[in-house]
Amino acid sequence: MGMLDDAKETVGATAKHVGEEVREGVDRAKDKMDEMKADGEVRKAEAERDSVRERNEAKERLRD
């Protein structure tokens, strides 16, 4: 029975380790998605800023 108990403990420890690795992988993926989303929002804000700047410059040229 000692060998069977050792095998059970080993399997249990391995399963726990695999579970932790999966959780860490999921956390990393979520962090990467958050980072990509933030980068997209920055690009959108920069594009909007550039658009407003261009529009204001065009209006200013029309005033001259």
Descriptive labels:
single chain, 64 residues, mainly alpha, 1 helix, 97% helix
Report on this structure.
Helices cover 97% and strands 0% of the residues. With 64 residues, the chain is an all-alpha fold. The longest helix has 62 residues, at 2-63.
- The chain-level mean pLDDT equals 94
Give the % helix. Answer: over 70%
Rg (CA only): 28 Å
Total count of strands:
0
| SSE string, helices as H and strands as E | H
Which sheet architecture does the biggest sheet show? Answer: none
Multimer state: single chain
% residues in beta strands: under 5%
Structural class: mainly alpha
Quick take:
The protein has 64 residues and is mainly alpha-helical.
Q: How are the SSEs ordered, and which strands pair?
A:
Layout: H1 2-63
